[in-house]
Input
Amino acid sequence: QLQVAESGGGLVQPGGSLRLSCAAAGFTLENSDIGWFRQAPGKEREFVSCIDSSGTVAKRTDSVKGRFTVSRDNAKDTVYLQMNSLKPEDTAVYYCAVGRAPYCTILAGLPRPDQYDRWGQGTQVTVSS
Output
């Protein structure tokens, strides 16, 4: 199966932390640009962060700068999204996906959802007191 699977979501209080994982099913992530996106109820899917195949280039949307860190462990073929200082507005279903091209490095701006495929089913992150 050419898709990914997200895990690590859950319920956390404001200011708390979660680490999301993205693992491959049926292929390797090692040579792939990986994007993290999120979608809250009634809203469009939005870009959160991305990382290139080597793990040397990473981007984040402004709203998560200083709080979220994307990384990868190619030996484990896993990409992570470390989320700290979580806020209620971070509540959403979080998805990872594979870039159709190395958009995390070649774009001057931020990637868009339509530039990625092999979407996972998502993992729910709820930030609430």
Notes: The chain has a mean pLDDT of 94.
